[in-house]
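hiii so um. not sure if this is the right channel but i have a protein structure encoded as tokens and i wanna go backwards to a sequence. like what aa goes where. can anyone help
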């Protein structure tokens, strides 16, 4: 008989459980019935027990987390309370997409993904009518029919791609957990959109125009403040005082984007605790990074100057900017600079393009941009043909 240990389990305790000469069991008390079997090989597996010697395997740790195992065990025990025995198959496999989503995938994603609630909600909204179907009955034709219907209704290709990514990831997790033999949508390709291949960066003339527009905007706002203070003084009112640094967030956010390649969402969420001006490093935290991983950005001299200047008027340890939208200011800036077809996100392309044209290798560019693999970065490999022409000219004898 395996050795039995009874206590309320914790994530740290489960991770720290070491293999022994024989199988032993850690039994959770919340819910009662959840156990973790630890094999001499080091393998750890969850199961739920009830009655006399009856048990059902739930999944392996760490693929199934403690939170996910507790949720799955609670569902099985609820079925036993209602029906006297689990309703699902003896092997514990989810026959339908709905059973898998609600009993396995949802608790796993909610416990492990920062946007877990949104992911589960989106899958149910789009694919809820598949929930009564066996997972192995889902076909590529099913997806194509759904995609066509939604595209004809005005859905954007980007939305279709996100939907596909979510359902493919869910089905692939079922394969990982051996609840499904193969992923029926594994071979389906994302819609290739022109926007995904778009690489828009500033020409030298446009770059100067943008910076000139930023300077002119600052000068205009400072002059307006000065006129306003004079109006207040004339009426014996307290003046607001001259700006000590930047007049608002627009110029520092734009300059920081141009010098770091940060996404707008990252710029909005960085905090002063993420900025080390002495070491000239800014850390993008996993909690708001698109790929869910920390990345450390070296700051060049202009970026350091921008942050140092902004810091004077914004002390503390809160958000550096804390602004989630600057659409009006950005569009007005482009109008003043007479720059067309240039989005805020394109400053990220501009940053990467300038690095590549300066001879920086693609893997370093990938790390700076926070791309999870080199595929996304390869779009910059074929930029600026004039630089290629200059390179081959070096071969002329």
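sure thing!! here u go:
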């Amino acid at each position: 008989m395996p050795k039995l240990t009874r206590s309320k389990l914790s994530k740290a305790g489960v991770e720290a459980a070491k293999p022994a000469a024989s199988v032993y069991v850690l039994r959770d008390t919340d819910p009662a019935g959840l156990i973790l079997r630890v094999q001499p090989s080091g393998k750890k597996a969850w199961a739920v027990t009830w009655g006399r010697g009856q048990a059902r395997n739930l999944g392996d740790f760490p693929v199934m987390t403690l939170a996910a195992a507790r949720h799955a065990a609670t569902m099985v025990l609820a079925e036993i309370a209602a029906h006297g025995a689990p309703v699902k198959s003896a092997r514990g496999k989810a026959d339908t997409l709905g059973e898998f989503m609600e009993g396995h995938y949802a608790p796993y994603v909610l416990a492990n993904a920062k946007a877990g609630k949104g992911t589960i909600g989106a899958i149910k909204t789009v694919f809820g009518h598949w929930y009564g179907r066996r997972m192995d009955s889902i076909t590529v034709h099913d997806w194509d029919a759904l995609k066509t219907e939604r595209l004809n209704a005005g859905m954007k290709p980007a939305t279709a791609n996100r939907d596909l990514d979510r359902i493919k990831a869910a089905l692939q997790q079922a394969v990982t957990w051996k609840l499904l033999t193969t992923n029926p949508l594994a071979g389906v390709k994302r819609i290739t959109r022109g926007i995904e291949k778009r690489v828009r960066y500033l020409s030298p003339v446009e770059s100067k125009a943008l910076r000139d527009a930023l300077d002119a905007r600052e000068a205009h706002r400072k002059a307006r403040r000065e006129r306003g203070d004079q109006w207040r003084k004339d009426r014996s009112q307290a003046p607001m005082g001259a700006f000590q640094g930047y007049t608002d967030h627009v110029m520092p956010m734009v300059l920081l984007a141009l010098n770091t390649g940060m996404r707008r969402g990252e710029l909005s969420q960085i905090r002063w605790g993420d900025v080390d001006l002495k070491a000239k490093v800014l850390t993008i935290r996993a909690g708001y990074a698109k790929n869910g991983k920390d990345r450390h950005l070296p700051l060049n001299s202009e970026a350091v100057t921008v942050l140092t200047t902004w810091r004077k008027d914004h002390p503390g340890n809160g958000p550096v900017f804390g602004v989630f939208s600057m659409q009006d200011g950005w569009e007005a800036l482009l109008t003043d600079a007479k720059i067309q077809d240039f989005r805020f996100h394109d400053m990220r392309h501009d940053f990467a393009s300038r690095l590549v044209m300066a001879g920086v290798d693609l893997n370093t560019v990938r790390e700076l941009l926070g791309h999870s693999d080199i595929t996304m970065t390869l779009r910059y490999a074929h930029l600026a043909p004039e630089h290629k022409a200059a390179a081959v000219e070096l071969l002329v004898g």
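oh and The chain has a mean pLDDT of 84.
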